[in-house]
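Annotators were shown the component list below and the corresponding predicted structure, then asked to write short factual statements about the assembly.
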Amino acid sequence: MDLTLQKNIFISFFRTGMLGFGGGPSTIPLVHKEVVETYKWMTDEEFGDVLAIGNTLPGPIMTKMAGYIGYRVGGVLGLINALAAAVFPTVLIMISLIGVLIAYRDSPIVQGMTQAIAPVVGVMLFVLAYSFIKKSKEALGWKIAILLGAISLVTYVWLNWHPAILIGALIIYSLVGKHKQTS
Amino acid sequence: MKELWDLFVAFFIPGIVGYGGGPASIPLVEHEVVKNYGFMTTNEFGEVLALANALPGPIATKMAGYIGFEVAGTLGSIVALFATIVPSLLAMILLLGLLTKYKDSPKVKRITTYVRPIIAVLMGFLTFQFFDTSVESAGWIQTIFLVIVSLLLLEKYRVHPAWVVAGSLVYGAVFLS
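Structure shown to annotators:
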């Protein structure tokens, strides 16, 4: 077992996990810096391939990248190591911080904090939703983007369908449907 | 045991339909943990999301790790993380050859393109719910004030989200308690 290699795998994904704000996708450039520039485990092109392959699948991108790169560089141990470094530190911080909030749930101060945080979370989600809308418009044009949005609004809000049904249908449509190039 | 299975399903589904990375799974996770299984209220989910946004690292795993922990302790945390991470990672490693062949296929690229507007609507709806609960608990005036100030700070002055969350906590502790 190559200890130095495992240590480097841990350090690189610990750093990207602790320095990356805004969720997995915004962390990708940091992963690139560690993997391609600092440790030279992959070429630029190989990294681009891994990212493209990761994007063909659903689910969080950061854990796919960490797990796969860890596996390729350091085997099964490397996979576990990279995932642990990327995931556990921030999860532990989350659990302890919210633990403090919950311990004092009945205090008026914590209740005030909870009230003030809801609109701020709303704004953050709004910003995120807006960036998704903008990207949808760029890739599909207004007509199709609004049509798809309207369909999901009707099925989700009024008909109460599980969102996975519509998304599943769209995945199948994307793969087998015949249509002109969209992007 | 039932709780662990529910946790697994609650995080497995967003993991397999959430195209567009972890942040895209936020409204899908909310649907499972608040509406389907009732593990927490919209407000509690908001607290989780606020802290997840203020802290570094991937969003999806912070949500899964924490919510799993709150529902069923350490084991719950591990189950939720497992359901979030392992299926897509395993698929990536096992199907590498197949995926490499299709990674530049326009059909595969189309998936993300088509799923994105759906996620946008789900997020928009969740946004609306947060404003709604906020008006109920803190009132119109406080809500509008906090929305405008945080929007300006985040988007116009590009203040780091961690500071905006911290600032709103202090504001709430001082003025809303």
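Statements collected:
1. Chain B touches chain A through 103 residues (CB under 8 Å).
2. Residues 10 and 32 of chain B are 5 Å apart (CA to CA).
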